[in-house]
Write a structure and sequence with these properties.
- This protein has 423 residues and is mainly beta.
- It has 4 helices and 25 strands.
- The strands form 4 sheets. Strands 1, 2, 3, 16, 18, 19, 20, 21, 22, 23 and 25 form an 11-stranded antiparallel beta sheet that branches.
- Strand 4 (62-70) and strand 5 (74-82) form a beta hairpin.
- 32% of the residues are buried.
Length: 423
């Protein structure tokens, strides 16, 4: 494997030597054909776990319900809150009310549901106070509470038990009370303002809370497909037909609300700027989506390549990060990497990089994430001395996917390998 890697570098280096001076570190082009390739794998990189104060969960296509008691991370519970767009202009002439249902569409995401068949109860509550976005913000966050709405119990409209399994994550349908449905249909028949003025609708509905009772897993819901349906029958002729009125979230307030309790002492972050060194987490660093934990890697040490004053060409660089699960399905296939400074500001204009999983197919033990880091290293080497640079690692859908990843630090042979060419 290493031999193949060096051959690849040699080919790349020949190409670089015939190119412009942009690939050269130093003032003079290396003219000699007598050069050597050097592997630098002792660059100091330091791992810490950081926690974001809050994450916006109201701007995602995914809503979440469920939870789990995890000894590694603490107790997690997630609920979905939403309002519905009630604007409707269709005629209700000759229609008779039948029933009202809520369709809960799954988006395929699940956590802690591996190889388990379990019964869980879904509960729908109507809020006693109106759900609304935070003042001056068209957003709600993972820990947001709306006074009088999300911080107090609502009125239970329905609860239903479903059978769940990894291969049985399908859309759910809950029938709601006819008292609620008939009142809504009567208002629709009488052209009530709630069907022409959304502010009136929100004041009438208040909002809804959807959650699992005593949850043992987490599932993702498709925000755009969640709907309330009034089912009616057209009685204008002898041939009866069904007419449905569907109401979706649309542009109305919605978000996933997280509750994180019984947090292990090692993961408690007292102040916003605090970081947890990998030494305090058994030489590990964590990524936990939804809760805001991310891995931060100090790579300022790559500038040590400049200390001896020798000219060189940067040929290639790779970042290799090990993890601690053998099963492929446990962790995401990719991690997202951003290059930031000491102020957590992105320094690449929003560009991100990708760590990809590499598996030991023979023994299943040598598994890691791998990324071409050449562009990142070159950027840092060309910056003035004095700045600090870090890699921030998150998972995809970081705000609304509570997938967790445990990464090993340098003691687990996580490293950055840099290949240079010198005379």
């Amino acid at each position: 494997m290493r031999k193949e890697r060096v051959i690849g570098v040699l080919v790349l280096c020949v190409g670089i030597l015939s190119c412009s001076e942009s690939s050269v570190i130093g003032e003079d082009f290396i003219e000699s054909t007598d050069y050597q390739i050097t592997l630098n794998n002792s660059i100091p990189i330091e791992f810490t776990t950081v926690r974001f104060d809050s994450l916006i969960t109201s701007q995602s296509d995914r809503l979440l319900i469920g939870g789990q008691n995890d000894t590694s991370f603490g107790d997690l519970n997630i609920e979905t809150y939403f309002l519905l767009d009630l604007i409707e202009s269709e005629s209700t002439d000759n229609l008779q009310y039948d029933s009202i249902t809520l369709t809960i569409p799954m988006d395929g995401y699940s956590l802690y549901l591996d190889d388990v068949t379990i019964r869980q109860t879904v509960v729908l509550e109507q809020l006693v106070g109106e759900l609304e976005y935070l003042e001056d913000e068209a957003a709600l966050y993972n820990y947001s509470d709306i006074e009088g709405a999300t911080d107090v119990p609502g009125t239970i409209l329905a609860e239903r038990e479903f059978l769940w399994a990894t291969d049985r994550i399908r859309d759910l349908e809950m029938r709601l009370p006819d008292l609620f449905g008939e009142d809504l249909f009567n208002r629709l028949e009488n052209d009530d303002d709630i069907f022409s003025d959304q502010e009136e609708a929100n004041e009438y509905l208040k909002g809804f809370r959807l959650y699992l009772k005593d949850p043992a897993f987490i599932v993702g819901l498709s925000r755009d497909s969640l709907k309330l349906t009034i089912h009616t029958t057209d009685i204008s002729s002898t041939s009866l037909s069904n007419i449905d009125f569907d109401f979706f979230i649309g542009l109305q307030p919605q978000y996933s609300k997280f509750s994180h309790t019984n947090i292990p002492d090692a993961l408690v972050v007292e102040e916003l700027d605090d970081e947890i060194a990998s030494d305090n987490l058994d030489d590990n660093a964590y990524i936990i989506g939804g809760l805001g934990y991310a891995t931060k890697i100090d790579i300022t040490g790559v500038r040590d390549l400049l200390l001896d004053g020798e000219e060189f060409i940067l040929a290639d660089a790779e970042l290799k990060i090990r993890w601690f699960e053998h099963e492929q399905e446990k962790y995401p296939q990719t991690l997202t990497v951003s290059l930031i400074n000491e102020d957590f500001a992105d320094v690449t204009g929003g560009q991100t990089f990708t760590l990809n999983q590499v598996f030991d197919d023979e023994y299943g033990r040598d598994n890691y994430y791998l990324m071409d880091a050449t562009q990142i290293v070159e950027f840092i080497l060309n910056q003035p001395f004095g700045g600090e640079y870090y890699l921030l690692l998150t998972a995809s859908d970081f705000n609304t996917s509570p997938t967790h990843v445990i990464l090993g630090d340098r003691s687990s042979d996580s490293e950055i390998n840099i290949y240079t060419i010198k005379n």
